[in-house]
C-alpha cells in the first residue's frame, strides 16, 4: 500500500503517489536551479511546469493516481534541465565574444528568426488570432495588421470595373486562419515568440472546425456579434409576439364574423357543409385562440430574454410553453376528429353515390 498526495500543477489537480511526488518535486527544483541565472527564469520555469502538467493530463484519467513510472516518462520526454538551460544560454549573446558587434547582431537576428514559428496568437485575438499572430511573428504591432485588413476590406467595396472585391480580403483571412496553427500549449507559445524548448511536441496537425468555431464564439469579436445578434433577434421576437398577441384578440369574434360571411353560401355536398359548421363553431376558434396566445407569449418570453441577455431559469419556462403549444395542437386535431366522426356516415354515403 502506498500513500498519496493531492497537488495542483499549472491549474490542474492531480492525485500522485508519495514517491512519485518526491521525484517530481526534485525535478522541478532542478529546473528552477538550472534557469536561476536567466533573466526570464520565472517565465521559462512556468512554461516548463505547464508542459509537465499538460503531459501528465494527457495520460491522467479521473480517479487514477499518478505513479512514479508516469513521472519518469515525463522527465524523459522533457529532458535534462541542465541541458535545456545550456541550450537556452547558447542563444544568448555573451559580452566576451570576440566577433565584431555587427556580426554578433546579425547572428542573433538570424537565430531569432530561425527559431520563431508562425502561429495564431490566441491570447491576444479579436477573432481568429491571425493578425495578432502575424504581428508577433514579424515583431510589428498587431493593430497595424488589423488596420490593413480593414482597409483592404473596405477598398474592396469600390467597384472599379467589374464589381466589388471585398471577398478577396475575407478569403485571404480565412486561408491564413486555416494554414496557421493556433498557439495553445506553453511550448507553442514559446515557439511563436522565438523561444522554443527542446521538447517533443504534440502539435495539432489538422484544422479542427468544431474547435475553431467554439473559439470564434468565445473571442471578443464573436461575443460582440453574438450580443448584437441577440439584441436584434430579441427585438424581432418581441415585436412579432406583441403584434400577434394583440391580433389574437379578434379570434373569439371569428365565429360570428364567419357566420355573417357564409350566410349566403349554399353548400353543395356534405364535406362543404361540415367545413362551414367547423368555421362557425365557437369551440374551434377558442382552441385556435389558445394556440396563438401560447405561441406569441413564447415569442415575447424569448425576445425579452435575448434582448436583455438574461439567464434562462432552470425549470425552462420556454420549454413549458412549447409543450403547452403542442398540446393545444393535439386538442384541435382531437376536436376536429370528434366533430367529423358525427358526419362520417353522411360523407361516406355521399362518396359512394
Question: What can you see in these coordinates?
Answer:
The chain is mainly alpha-helical and 353 residues long. The protein folds into three domains: 87 residues, no CATH class; 107 residues, no CATH class; 131 residues, no CATH class. The chain has a two-stranded antiparallel ribbon. It has a two-stranded parallel ribbon with strand order 3-4. α1 packs parallel to α3 and α13 runs antiparallel to α15. 17% of the residues are buried. About 7% of the residues have low confidence.
Could you say which overall geometry the principal axes of the C-alpha atoms support?
A: elongated
Order of helices and strands: EEHHHHHEHHHEHHHHHHH
Number of helices: 15
Roughly how many Å apart are the termini? 92 Å
Which structural category fits the helices and strands?
Answer: mainly alpha
How much strand content do the residues show?
A: under 5%
Summarize this entry quickly.
The protein has 353 residues and is mainly alpha-helical.
Amino acid at each position: 500500500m502506498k500513500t498519496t498526495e493531492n497537488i495542483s500543477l499549472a491549474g490542474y489537480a492531480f492525485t500522485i503517489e508519495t514517491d512519485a511526488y518526491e521525484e517530481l518535486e526534485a525535478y522541478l527544483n532542478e529546473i528552477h536551479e538550472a534557469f536561476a541565472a536567466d533573466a526570464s527564469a520565472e517565465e521559462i520555469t512556468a512554461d516548463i511546469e505547464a508542459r509537465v502538467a499538460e503531459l501528465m493530463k494527457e495520460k491522467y484519467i479521473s480517479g487514477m493516481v499518478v505513479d512514479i513510472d508516469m513521472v519518469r516518462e515525463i522527465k524523459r520526454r522533457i529532458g535534462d534541465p541542465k541541458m535545456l538551460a545550456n541550450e537556452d544560454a547558447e542563444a544568448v549573446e555573451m559580452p566576451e565574444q570576440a566577433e565584431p558587434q555587427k556580426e554578433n547582431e546579425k547572428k542573433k537576428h538570424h537565430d531569432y528568426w530561425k527559431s520563431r514559428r508562425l502561429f495564431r496568437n490566441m491570447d491576444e485575438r479579436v477573432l481568429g488570432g491571425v493578425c495578432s499572430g502575424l504581428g508577433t511573428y514579424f515583431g510589428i504591432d498587431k493593430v497595424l495588421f488589423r488596420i490593413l485588413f480593414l482597409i483592404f476590406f473596405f477598398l474592396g467595396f469600390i467597384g472599379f470595373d467589374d464589381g466589388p472585391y471585398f471577398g478577396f480580403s475575407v478569403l485571404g483571412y480565412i486561408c491564413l486562419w486555416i494554414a496557421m496553427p493556433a498557439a495553445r500549449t506553453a511550448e507553442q507559445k514559446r515557439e511563436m515568440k522565438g523561444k522554443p524548448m527542446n521538447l517533443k511536441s504534440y502539435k495539432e496537425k489538422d484544422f479542427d472546425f468544431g474547435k475553431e468555431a467554439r473559439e470564434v464564439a468565445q473571442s471578443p469579436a464573436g461575443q460582440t456579434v453574438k450580443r448584437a445578434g441577440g439584441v436584434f433577434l430579441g427585438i424581432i421576437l418581441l415585436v412579432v409576439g406583441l403584434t400577434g398577441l394583440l391580433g389574437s384578440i379578434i379570434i373569439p369574434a371569428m365565429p360570428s364574423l364567419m357566420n355573417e360571411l357564409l350566410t349566403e353560401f349554399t353548400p353543395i355536398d356534405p364535406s362543404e357543409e361540415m367545413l362551414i359548421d367547423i368555421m362557425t363553431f365557437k369551440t374551434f376558434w377558442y382552441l385556435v385562440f389558445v394556440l396563438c396566445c401560447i405561441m406569441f407569449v413564447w415569442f415575447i418570453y424569448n425576445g425579452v430574454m435575448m434582448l436583455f441577455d438574461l439567464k434562462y431559469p432552470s425549470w425552462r419556462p420556454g420549454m413549458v410553453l412549447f409543450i403547452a403549444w403542442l398540446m393545444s395542437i393535439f386538442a384541435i386535431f382531437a376536436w376536429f376528429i370528434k366533430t367529423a366522426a358525427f358526419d362520417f356516415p353522411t360523407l361516406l354515403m355521399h362518396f359512394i353515390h
